[in-house]
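Here is a complete protein record:
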Amino acid sequence: MKANTFEVSIIVNPELRGRGYGKRVLESSLLEIKTTIPVQEFIAIIHKDNESSIHLFNQVGFTFNKQVDDNFKQLRLIC
């Protein structure tokens, strides 16, 4: 991983999913980091079948970067 690159991961309690908590936590975390640290990019490694997580990260600006292996994708947000 390059300098000034941060890996992001979000886990939401299954009972609380679908209420927007993950998006709010992700957005506020990204904003906090971007305003305090000179970050160039964020990456997220997500299982190819985790459509909800892929959708969440796409909503806040992450795009597909590369296939990590047979099961995982890397999404990236360039700052």
The chain has a mean pLDDT of 95.
